[in-house]
Amino acid sequence: PLVLGIETSCDETGVGIVRGHTLLADAVASSVEEHARFGGVVPEVASRAHLEAMVPTIQRACDTAGVSLTDVDAIAVTHGPGLAGALLVGVASAKALALSLGKPIYGVNHLAAHVAVDQLEHGPLPEPCLALLVSGGHSSLLKVTDITGYDGGVDPLGATIDDAAGEAFDKVARLLGLPFPGGPHIDRVAREGDQVAIDFPRGLTGRRDLERHRFDFSFSGLKTAVARWVEARERSGEPVPVADVAASFQEAVCDVLVRKALDAASSEGIEDLMIGGGVAANSRLRALAEERAAQLGIRVRVPRPGLCTDNGAMVAALGATMVERGRTPSPLDLPADSSLPVTEVLAG
Ligand code: ATP
Ligand code: MG
Ligand code: FE
Fold first, then answer.
1. Where is Fe cation bound in this sequence (predicted)?
2. Cβ 277 under 6 angstroms from ligand 1
């Protein structure tokens, strides 16, 4: 099926077009520059930017794909989770398209789309697979037996109990004086640093913690440890070795993510690990996962960095899977749901 997907959950206006598992277009307009001086995404600014970018981004996607809107078989849209006002722009636009074209609409979960997108690069998702979902607002380990969410197909084994991994990257970048969003900057600066220079804490990996939180994450203690370390340096009048701090912090995050993801896969007897979400773009996370998984005979799938961060293609990919599996389209009055749980993949 030819599916057009719309993504507006945060600051990226994404419109993707796929034919089955083939990516035809992935147009993204970001308002990130408008938020940078505030050090975080400003919801009202994001909503307005989506309104302005929507029509031109749809046009650009159609031009790139060489299709016209009337060729499209179905519309998919992120209906949650995310910023309420931002989601509404996408949902309203998708409804308008579906209604005027007389085509079905699929309201899908942004987090499941971060997983489904890998099909565009590496073919059908192995099911079951273990998905490590690491993004700006979420960090979870999911057992995926059906990415459309059918019959409990997306089952959370664990999640962060405080900050998301991407949030930790952004906060630590900020205290190191790096621009927003900080993940890519930490990734870049860390290449010049020593990852064993500073021994930062690995959250929820102690024996007692593992009893209750084996597959959960915690990054707020790490963020505080980095802040304390930097403050102590500044007080002593010595320069802060930014590259070493970045590399050591990044190592602490990636070490825990990979350790717990592989532990979960092994304990479930699952041989395929998928990593998705913006933090999956991190070069150290990708390398460490490959290295350790190979030792256990576990295969790793990570989309290319451009498909890890928010985009419309991921929404189209999940929409195409809904069509292929004969799932019932969403009602035309589907709502936006800012706090949609990861288990609810398709709006019913
Ligand atoms: P969610 O998907 O939870 O709703 P989101 O959509 O805002 O959150 P994504 O776009 O999926 O988030 O991911 C953005 C996050 O990914 C940011 O926190 C950003 O710093 C982080 N990120 C992007 N690239 C990298 C990288 N190379 N290394 C580490 N983090 C990165
Ligand atoms: Mg973004
Ligand atoms: Fe996201």
1. 110, 114, 310
2. yes
pLDDT-derived band at 37, boundaries 50, 70, 90? confident
Q: Which ligand is nearest to the CA of 82?
A: 1
Residue 55 CB coordination number (10 Å) = 11
User: Which tens digits make up the pLDDT trace of 327-339?
Assistant: 999 999 999 999 9
Q: What are phi and psi of 143, to 5 degrees?
A: -95, 115
| C-beta of 278 in contact with ligand 1 (< 6 A) | yes
pTM over 0.90, yes/no: yes
Radius of gyration of the chain from Cα atoms?
Answer: 20
Q: Which atom of ligand 1 is nearest to the CA of 173?
A: 20
CA dihedral 335, 342, 29, 319 (to 10 degrees): -70
C-alpha to C-alpha distance for 291 and 284, rounded to whole angstroms = 10
Ligand 1 atom 31 nearest Cα: 183
Mind listing the pLDDT tens digit for each residue in 76-86?
999 999 999 99
Kindly give the number of the ligand 1 atom that is closest to the alpha carbon of 166.
Answer: 18
**How much is the average pLDDT of 8-20?**
98
